[in-house]
């Protein structure tokens, strides 16, 4: 059985400072993002908040991030949490489970035709869909561009098998889920 942890990331965001244009100006123009802040400003208060979160995460298992609606910060929380875990020498992978918006895939500059749905079709071949962020080495499986609105992760029979494969290969699996009020998929995942 897989250990499941519910963690209200809103608690994290109350303590994490907002990333302002002023704080991001200290980064190179192509690195001005939450990912750039955590990667290249590890001593910043923003990065420290995500490092502090690591103590609340399980040593192994799956952690899902979900917001009520779009643009609440669930993708940022998932990405920064995964990156901080990787910086602390944990084997971590982050999955873009939001097939419609693909915010995590865009944040990682992953514009693949295939992704998590195809990995669910053949969970033993998940490495065929694995991406690696070039600056940090963070592993991820994107949401592919080939989106069929009638297919969902919940209806994919291999989703549980994929999670089992990933939890065997990684210390931590981070899921970026679709917003709860936009679709039923996020809450079901």
Topology diagram in text:
Layout (H helix, E strand, L loop, with lengths): L8 H7 L5 H4 L9 H7 L4 H9 L7 E5 L8 H14 L4 E5 L6 H5 L8 H6 L9 E2 L6 E3 L17 H11 L2 E5 L8 H4 L1
Parallel strand pairs: 1-5, 2-4, 2-5
Antiparallel strand pairs: 3-4
Helix pairs in contact: 3-4, 3-5, 4-5
Report on the structure:
The protein is of the alpha/beta class. The chain is built from nine helices and five strands, in the order H-H-H-H-E-H-E-H-H-E-E-H-E-H. The protein has a five-stranded mixed beta sheet, with helices on both faces. A hairpin with a 6-residue loop joins strand 3 and strand 4. The chain is globular, with a radius of gyration of 16 Å. The model is unreliable at 1-13 (pLDDT under 50).
Assess the beta-strand content as a share of residues: 5-15%
Computed structural class: alpha/beta
Distance between the termini: 16 Å
Major beta sheet summary: 5 strands, mixed
| Helix/strand order | HHHHEHEHHEEHEH
User: What's the helical proportion of residues?
Assistant: 25-40%
Note the overall shape.
globular
The radius of gyration over CA amounts to: 16 Å
Total beta-strand segments: 5
Low-confidence stretches: 1-13
Number of contiguous helices:
9
Output the strand order for the largest sheet.
1-5-2-4-3
Could you tell me the mean pLDDT? 80
């Amino acid at each position: 059985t897989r250990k499941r942890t519910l963690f209200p990331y809103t608690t994290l965001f109350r303590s994490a400072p907002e990333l302002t244009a002023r704080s991001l100006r200290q980064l190179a123009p192509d690195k001005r993002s939450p990912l750039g802040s955590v990667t290249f400003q590890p001593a910043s208060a923003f990065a420290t908040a995500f490092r502090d979160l690591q103590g609340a995460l399980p040593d192994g298992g799956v952690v899902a991030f979900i917001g009520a609606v779009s643009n609440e910060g669930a993708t940022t929380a998932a990405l920064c949490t995964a990156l901080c875990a990787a910086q602390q020498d944990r084997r971590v992978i982050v999955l873009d489970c939001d097939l419609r918006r693909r915010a995590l895939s865009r944040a990682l500059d992953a514009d693949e035709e295939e992704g998590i749905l195809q990995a669910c079709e053949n969970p033993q071949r998940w490495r065929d869909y694995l991406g690696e962020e070039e600056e940090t080495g963070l592993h991820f499986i994107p949401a592919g561009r080939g989106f069929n609105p009638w297919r969902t992760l919940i209806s994919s029979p291999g989703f549980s098998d994929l999670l089992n494969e990933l939890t065997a290969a990684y210390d931590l699996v981070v899921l970026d889920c679709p917003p709860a009020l936009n679709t039923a998929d996020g809450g079901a995942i």
